[in-house]
Backbone:
């Protein structure tokens, strides 16, 4: 079944890019066919291509086109009983094994379009190769224009994808883009491992209620830690529990949270969702929450502050934060350390926050408010930042691609996750070049 669908996808690709056989196309009953416009590819229900333009025996037809490997598939899929297919003007197949008729009784012209052998060979090679990415052979020969245009499109696609997630957070927060920004910021303070937990935590913070106590950092931290479930006695590792309960800070935080929880009808999340295994202490949720509490208290997590930043340096200054005094000597409740540290976010961590939070939110707000200046600034900021360093970027560099800035690295992350991982080479411009490389 998989191979069957794959070949039909390749037939769609052949038609969309007009990779048609040399010589004149003819319908099964001998009429000449000229493809003026293959139409708009439809990935949803209905005919495969909308508003195609084809000239059949000298007459121009404008309408929809349906593609199948065999003519009989028209009946297998029930198109002969579906009025949505009455406006199909041409049936494109690899094998014409019968005549086809629409629901309103019209016989459709059919044209046989074979999949070129070299195209089929290249496609199967892309699907079965063990090397990653599968198109590595073609990358060194790609023109700078091809690479630049595809990278620019991928960069935009990634920001658009993140915009959808941010807009969904705004919807869940009753239309509040302020809360959506805070949720995005919190999620990325999880730095991957605790990202889901931080998102759940942020959505569990009643910002309007907490805002009434924003000027008191201790109360903000009490709500933040309490809503995370980290003030529950059971959340403290057993070996530190007695020390935590004996500490004045932990006791006062618990008491303050109980008061505020009663006042605002708060319900803490399950502390067991937090992950600590193989996590460096500076990334413990206690530390990240304490840093977020200070950002919130100092009003540096406000959307209006973000929208005023125009350079990476201004964003670094805005989002730089450190912990409250207790956490300068602790990584978790009850476990005092011998060293004293303010536990700042490193420059590298700030860059990660900017790439994954500040820039996407700036772009999303620009789209929402129809302010292109915010969207343009998002792209400018990506160009100002250094490229990320990870296995995905190294993989593409080994293939011969140059990575100059964060815009490039974000584009390549999008390419791997949305195209390479899914083996969706038919939608990739690098894949297109690979497929057509051996075409006559």
Residues:
């Amino acid at each position: 079944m998989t191979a069957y669908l794959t070949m039909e996808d390749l037939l769609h690709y052949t038609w969309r890019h007009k990779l048609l056989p040399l010589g004149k196309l003819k319908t099964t009953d001998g009429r000449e066919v000229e493809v003026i416009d293959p139409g708009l590819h439809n990935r949803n229900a209905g005919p495969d291509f909308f508003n195609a333009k084809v000239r059949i025996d000298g007459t121009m037809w404008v309408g929809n086109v349906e593609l199948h490997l065999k003519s009989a598939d028209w009946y297998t899929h029930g198109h002969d009983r579906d009025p949505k297919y009455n406006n199909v003007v041409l049936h494109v197949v690899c094998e014409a094994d019968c005549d086809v008729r629409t629901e309103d009784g019209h016989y459709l012209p059919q044209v046989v379009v074979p999949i070129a052998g070299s195209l089929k060979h290249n496609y199967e090679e892309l699907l079965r190769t063990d090397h990653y990415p599968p198109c590595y052979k073609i990358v060194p020969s790609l023109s700078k224009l091809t690479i630049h245009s595809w990278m620019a499109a991928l960069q935009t696609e990634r920001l658009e994808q993140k915009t959808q997630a941010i807009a969904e957070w705004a919807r869940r927060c009753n239309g509040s883009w302020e809360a959506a920004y805070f949720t995005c910021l919190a999620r990325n303070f999880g730095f991957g491992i605790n990202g889901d937990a931080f998102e759940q935590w942020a959505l569990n913070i009643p910002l309007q209620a907490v805002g009434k106590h924003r000027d008191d950092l201790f109360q903000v931290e009490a709500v933040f830690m309490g809503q995370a479930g980290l003030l529950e006695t059971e959340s403290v590792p057993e070996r530190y529990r007695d020390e935590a309960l004996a500490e004045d800070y932990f006791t006062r935080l618990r008491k303050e949270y109980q008061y505020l929880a009663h006042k605002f009808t708060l319900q803490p999340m399950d502390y067991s969702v937090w992950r600590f295994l193989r996590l460096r202490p500076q990334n413990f949720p206690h530390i990240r929450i304490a840093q977020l509490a200070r950002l919130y208290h100092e009003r540096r997590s406000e959307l209006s502050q973000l929208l005023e930043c125009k350079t990476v340096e201004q964003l670094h200054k805005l989002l730089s934060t450190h912990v409250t005094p207790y956490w300068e000597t602790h990584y978790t409740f009850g476990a005092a350390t011998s060293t004293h540290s303010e536990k700042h976010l490193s420059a590298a961590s700030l860059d990660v926050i900017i790439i994954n939070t500040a820039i996407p939110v700036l772009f999303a707000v620009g789209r929402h408010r129809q302010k292109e200046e915010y969207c343009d600034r998002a792209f400018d900021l990506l160009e100002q930042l250094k490229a990320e360093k990870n296995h995905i970027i190294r993989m593409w560099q080994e293939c011969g691609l140059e990575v100059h800035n964060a815009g490039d690295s974000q584009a390549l992350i999008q390419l791997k996750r949305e195209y390479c991982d899914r083996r969706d080479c038919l939608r990739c411009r690098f894949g297109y070049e690979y497929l057509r490389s051996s075409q006559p």
